[in-house]
Structures are given as structure tokens and as C-alpha cells.
């Protein structure tokens, strides 16, 4: 029985193809029960790699079934057929994803970015409070509903945190994500704190929201790592970002995992709170600590200004995008953003490798 017939029997009228990979595809469908369109991810067990079937798919299904938050894509139904196909029926992001939104409209004004970032941060707090980590936060995985509210999607690399006898979260050894959004500890291939990893990716996302470009050039991982470890963050001067906004980004893009913000600290930051103005927590100095004697406009010698605007340029061959940052009389720096979260697209960055097992895990190549 083909997919359309299977879905029809379950009360769904299959629509257009939204994406397709080697062992997973996403279709739109109309739900006769819900009376609106949904997205259906269809995974073919016969084509999927063993490590995905044994580890990542069970985790994703378990976590999707337990999540219920207004800023997380809803999962309406999960079922499997006798021929080995898994169908995950989810909320449809009718306005596309955040990357496409920024490509079309440019960087967001801080007020709009604040609203969307607060929605995303609330979703991450909800997950972290449940000891669930996402581990693949990026603009492509942030869908927009009809009112352009954020809906976090793609939990293909998510997991429940394990704790030791003392209640401490055990470090993760599965290195996954997209290079441009990956924290330096992950890029270096060392065991990492999964919740702290999510925070770095949040910092990259907020930077993209307000700047319209990537904070780091991931075409040269070694060079990018060096800049990250020096805690250098460059902001386009033309964006005229507030000191509070730059302060928050700087604190999330903290290479020292022991000093990187936690999700509760992000939500209580003065920039995220719309009624609180002024850097009450103090601007960051070059070591990243608070200092009330430093004005927001001169946060740090490591937080510098770029003189030109960075724009998002679409590429024809795929949804993977290049965020180009062009400086006058300087070469153009291409910054690749991977759309897919499967291992193939990240092999060159040595991500998505299982430290203990050796074989790179894969997740469904096309996510909603």
C-alpha cells in the first residue's frame, strides 16, 4: 500500500512533498479529523541505518510523545505499518522556517527578535527542565506558524539526559549538530554538557536574528575554533544593536562552559525582559565577566563592530545557504549553514560521530 492510501485510511488526504532524503520524506496532508493541514514525516526502516533505528529514532519518538509546549511543534499521531514505515503526524509550519524568513526580509528588529527569541528560550527551558536536550538547534529547525510565532522542530538528535548517583548530568559523547551552530567543545570532539551545548546554539541563532549573518566563518574549522576560544564576537556596525543585546549574545557565545549562561539566566536577562531597559547586570569586559564601569557601547575589545551589513544569499542547488559577510576592500567570507541534520553533510567537520562506537549516526535527512 502506498503512502497516500495508508494516510487516507487514517483520515489524512496527502498533499505536496515538503522534503525528501535517502530514508525519510515529509509530506503535507489535510486532516479530516482536525480540519487543517499537517506535516507527515515518513521514515522507511528498510532504508535507514541500523544506528538510527536502534538509538535515534526511538529517542525521537519517545521525546515527541512527551512534549507539550506552545512553542514546540505539536505531534498529533505516530503510527507504523507492517511494511516497516513510520509515520509521524505533526503541526505544519505554514510560514516556513526562520532561515527563509530572514533571507527574505533581512535581519529582524530587536523587538521582533526579542519576541521570537523569548518563545524559543521558553521552549528550551521547558525541555531542559524535563532533562531533554535538542542538540541540533538552528534556524532551519525553527518553523513559523500563521502568526509568525516560533515552533521548535526536528528532535532527531534529542535525548534524555542521564544522571550519575550524585544527580549530576553525565557528559554526552555523541557529537552532533551543524558546524556553524556547534559549540567549540563539540567541534573539538570532547565529551560535553548537552544543555550547555544548546545554549551556544541559541547564541548563534540570536546573532543571526539581529545581524542577518553568521557569527563565525565555518569554512575553516581550525580558524573558527581559535576565534571562538578567544571569545571574539564581531557585530555589524550598521545594525546599531543595543548594548543589552550584544551583552546577551556575548555571554551565550562563551567558550568556557562553566561561565556560559544557563537557560534561566537567559530568560531573566535584561534584554529578554521587555520592560527592563539598561544593562543592570553590567556590560561584559574582555574576560566576559560583568563590569558596571563599562558602557554598553564598548562591551569589549573582543566584541567588535563590522562596518558593513551582512545579507543572506540563496543558493540554487539546495536549501543549504551561504551567509556572506562582505567588507569593503576585503574578501568575501562564505559561511555555510547546513539544512540537513544527517551525518553525511557534517562528516567533513568531524561531527555526528559516536565516540564509543566509531560509526557516524544518521537521522532522517529531511525534517519538518
From TrEMBL:
Taking every annotated instance into account, which residue ranges of this chain make up the domain Protein kinase?
Answer: 12-272
Q: What's the catalysed reaction? A: L-threonyl-[protein] + ATP = O-phospho-L-threonyl-[protein] + ADP + H(+); L-seryl-[protein] + ATP = O-phospho-L-seryl-[protein] + ADP + H(+)
Q: Which UniProt keywords apply?
A: ATP-binding, Cytoplasm, Developmental protein, Differentiation, Kinase, Magnesium, Metal-binding, Nucleotide-binding, Phosphoprotein, Serine/threonine-protein kinase, Spermatogenesis, Transferase, Ubl conjugation
Q: What is its EC number?
A: 2.7.11.1
Q: Which domain of life is it from?
A: Eukaryota
Family the entry assigns: Belongs to the protein kinase superfamily. CAMK Ser/Thr protein kinase family.
Q: What is the recorded name of this protein?
A: non-specific serine/threonine protein kinase
Amino acid at each position: 500500500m502506498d503512502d497516500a492510501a495508508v494516510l487516507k485510511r487514517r483520515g489524512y488526504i496527502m498533499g505536496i512533498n515538503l522534503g525528501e532524503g535517502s530514508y525519510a520524506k515529509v509530506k503535507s496532508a489535510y486532516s479530516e479529523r482536525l480540519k487543517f493541514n499537517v506535516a507527515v514525516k515518513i521514515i522507511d526502516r528498510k532504508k535507514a541505518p541500523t544506528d538510527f533505528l536502534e538509538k535515534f529514532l526511538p529517542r525521537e519518538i519517545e521525546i515527541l510523545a512527551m512534549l507539550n509546549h506552545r512553542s514546540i511543534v505539536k505531534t498529533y499521531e505516530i503510527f507504523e505499518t507492517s511494511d516497516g514505515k513510520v509515520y509521524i503526524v505533526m503541526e505544519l509550519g505554514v510560514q516556513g522556517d526562520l532561515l527563509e524568513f530572514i533571507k527574505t526580509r533581512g535581519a529582524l528588529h530587536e523587538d521582533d527578535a526579542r519576541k521570537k527569541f523569548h518563545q524559543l528560550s521558553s521552549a528550551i527551558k521547558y525541555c531542559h527542565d524535563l532533562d531533554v536536550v535538542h542538540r541540533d538547534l538552528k534556524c532551519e529547525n525553527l518553523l513559523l506558524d500563521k502568526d509568525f510565532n516560533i515552533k521548535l522542530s526536528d528532535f532527531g538528535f534529542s535525548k534524555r539526559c542521564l544522571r550519575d548517583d550524585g544527580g549530576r548530568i553525565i557528559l554526552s559523547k555523541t557529537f552532533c549538530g551543524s558546524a556553524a551552530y556547534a559549540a567549540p567543545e563539540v567541534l573539538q570532539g570532547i565529551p560535553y554538557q548537552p544543555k550547555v551545548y544548546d545554549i551556544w546554539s541559541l547564541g548563534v541563532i540570536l546573532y543571526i536574528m539581529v545581524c542577518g549573518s553568521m557569527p563565525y566563518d565555518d569554512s575553516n574549522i581550525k580558524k573558527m575554533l581559535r576565534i571562538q576560544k578567544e571569545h571574539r564576537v564581531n557585530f555589524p556596525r550598521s545594525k546599531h544593536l543595543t548594548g543589552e543585546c550584544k551583552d546577551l549574545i556575548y555571554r551565550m557565545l562563551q567558550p568556557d562552559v562553566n561561565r556560559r549562561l544557563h537557560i534561566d539566566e537567559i530568560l531573566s536577562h535584561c534584554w529578554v525582559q521587555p520592560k527592563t531597559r539598561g544593562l543592570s547586570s553590567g556590560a561584559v569586559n574582555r574576560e566576559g565577566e560583568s563590569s558596571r564601569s563599562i558602557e554598553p557601547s564598548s562591551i569589549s575589545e573582543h566584541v567588535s563592530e563590522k562596518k558593513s551589513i551582512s545579507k543572506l544569499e540563496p543558493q540554487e542547488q539546495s536549501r543549504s545557504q551561504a551567509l556572506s559577510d562582505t567588507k569593503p576592500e576585503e574578501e568575501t567570507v562564505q559561511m555555510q549553514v547546513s539544512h540537513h541534520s544527517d551525518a553525511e553533510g557534517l562528516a567533513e567537520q568531524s561531527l555526528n560521530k559516536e565516540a564509543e562506537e566509531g560509526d557516524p549516526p544518521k537521522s532522517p535527512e529531511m525534517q519538518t
